[in-house]
Amino acid sequence: MWIRRSFGDDILYTTLVQTYIDTLLQQGFNFECFIEGGRSRTGKLLPPKYGILSFVLDSILSGRTKDAIICPVSTQYDKVIETESYVTELLGVPKKKENLADFLTGGSSVLSLKLGRVD
């Protein structure tokens, strides 16, 4: 489920997301969320954002759902692909905004890297 990073004062959107999470929990569906809210290109853990967890807790504490099983998972990489761009940013060069065109043209080069295997 893709949601906005910030809901602002949008009561309708907040209610819609809460109702959707209630429904997922009530019907026993699994869903995943990334509590860091983004990815770290340095490999360091980012501080958590509690938005989705607050929706899950509200569902339970209000009695709209009986329970929820939360399973924290972390995905770590031995090699950071963006090392070169990260170093240039540390030297003061502004971060280049990511876009679909760059992803599509540069994606094949990333896919051809030898970064290990998944067994």
Question: What attributes does this structure have?
Answer:
4 helices, mainly alpha, 119 residues
Your description of this structure?
It is built from 4 helices and no strands. It has 119 residues and is mainly alpha-helical. It has one domain (11-111). The chain is elongated and about 50 Å long. The model has no long low-confidence stretch (mean pLDDT 83). InterPro entries: GPAT/DHAPAT, GPAT/DHAPAT_C, Plipid/glycerol_acylTrfase. It is a peripheral membrane protein. Residues 86-119 form the GPAT/DHAPAT C-terminal domain. Residues 2-74 form the Phospholipid/glycerol acyltransferase domain. It is found in: Endomembrane system.
Short summary:
With 119 residues, this protein is mainly alpha-helical. It has one domain (11-111).
